[in-house]
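Methods — Computational structure assignment.
A single polypeptide chain was analysed. Its primary sequence is given first, followed by the predicted tertiary structure written as structure tokens.
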Amino acid sequence: MEKKFKRTLITTALPYANGPVHIGHLAGVYVPADIYARYLRLRGEDVVMVGGSDEHGVPITLRARKEGITPQEVVDRYHTIIKDSLEELGVSFDIYSRTTSKLHHETASEFFRHLYDKGEFTVQTALQPYDEKTGEFLADRYVVGTCPRCHNENAYGDQCEACGSSLNVTDLINPRSALTGEPVKMRETTHWYLPLDKWEGKLREWILEGHKEWKTNVYGQCKSWLDAGLQPRAVSRDLKWGVPVPVEGAEGKVLYVWFDAPIGYISNTKELLPDSWEKYWKDPESRIINFIGKDNIVFHCIVFPSMLMAYGDNFQLPDNVPANEFLNLEGDKISTSRNWAVWLHEYLRDFPRKQDVLRYVLTANAPETKDNDFTWADFQARNNNELVAILGNFVNRAVVLTHKYFGGVVPVRGEMSDTDNEVFAELNRIKGALSEALDTFHFREALKQAMEIARLGNRYLQETEPWKLAKSDMTRTGTILNVALQLCANLAIAFEPFIPFSTGRLAKMLNLGKLSWDMLGQTELVAEGSEIAPAELLFDKIEDAEVQNQVQKLLDTKKANEIAAWKAQPQAETVEFDTFAACDLRVGTVVECEKVPKADKLLRFLIDDGLEKRTIVSGIAKFYKPEDLVGKQVCFIANLAPRKLKGIVSEGMILSAENSDGSIVLLSPSATVAPGAKIG
């Protein structure tokens, strides 16, 4: 029998405040969490949603060092960007706080000290990477080296972003400090560890036996960790930025960010509800739902629950952790370091008043059980073919026809036909399927069911054709439009968790009062004789040019990444001076230049070399127009043996350099010289 709870606490993974949030964060955590919170509120339930910025840890300090500012300046900037953009998207937090707050530091310190005093930690000394030049231990992200799997030369000490492999510092080939570039040394350091193995039995019973209803991707990852056997995990780090470890002898050490951050859920609730926070965390009749991405599953299902069990004092474990998988972008993994992302604050600037379009597309394409892909083509298609052509079209037709034939007054619903009754019966079926999907965190399916109401409405109008009936039977026309308007009102309820800005405009258009989930399926939501506002388009078409601008932005990013990653090729083998001196390098003036027929890459040059005019063929046609080269001076090798290219005898080689972006640049003297001048 399903347990009934008095209240629900929803938590969302804390984004690192070392950059803005992107669509991967939204699809994985914030949009689904907001959908569920809005759904529960519509049901009239006691629900609180807490979130905040994760402002400690190595990514923050890396960003600060890169920009030459303090970590506090970094987090102040990005916390504001994140908070404001999530609010503009309509993510309805009851509180969005931060882990640099005084209350959080106090809460995290007290949590550690409580476990310390209970003897829940073990102390271990281990070898850690150390930078002798800076005189400090290096966290995993401060160590870079060659990945042993894909040979990426800039893999981190905890992960290779090129192939996605999880790594340890000791796995790296030629590890070096990210701060100085110096080879790392291994030195002993002491840290506090939480013995996860102590809680393995309880975790196995709680998850594997008690929560078989969890999503398969979450349950499967937990089972894999538990079956492999849990090991003690460090809860402190050698860093200067973070919550100081609150015991003697811990100078220069802070709480490990994965111990510190989830305590932020508790401190955020305390900040919001200083007098009643405990009932959301400690009352067995409260349930906790953690919305996270798949990279956080182990911390929210293994580490944080172990912390709560070790603390005791009736802390409740999460009832569900509906983690999503990863969202890719245009076939490639989203990467903050490579700027391969759609950033929320930029989207809101580029697509004003289109928050709901992004919410809709990310839900329709949500990576609920496997990784999924966001493309701008799909974004445009879903907006134009679904939001505009199905949902917006039905609402617009119903409202426009009501104004056309009844002056904007909701007509009386007369005798109901079988068709009318079937529509209302189908509406109730959809309500059941929609509620079931929302209750079980299948938001993609829930969105699909909500859209079925709009599809139902469009089919109904097409079958009944009220615009034709209006010529002969206004009574029947009034009934049809009344039914259509009731469907519109139901859409305002069904879609509110997903696209709240649009449903707000729809409710205003229909002059609806306060709506609740219990009203979904009712057929008298719009009162006969009441007035409705003139039609307003809920959605606009997105044109090709708008999408192409976004695609071009990504292409520019990809090109910039390729240029940034460019490295000069290794030097060729050493040659004797006499070998080099055998090459006759000269400067010549281009007399003629033309494309070689049936050869996309080749240009034919006629060069004045000071003695005669010679023909040279060069593969630079993609980078230069022939007419632009006439009269220019170029450097060439004069004494190469002639060879045929596309039937043309080439008498030398023009010198050029390949740039970091793959373009070819001709080598020329910095000032005009006499044709035939020797280089050397």
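Note: The chain has 20 helices and 24 strands.
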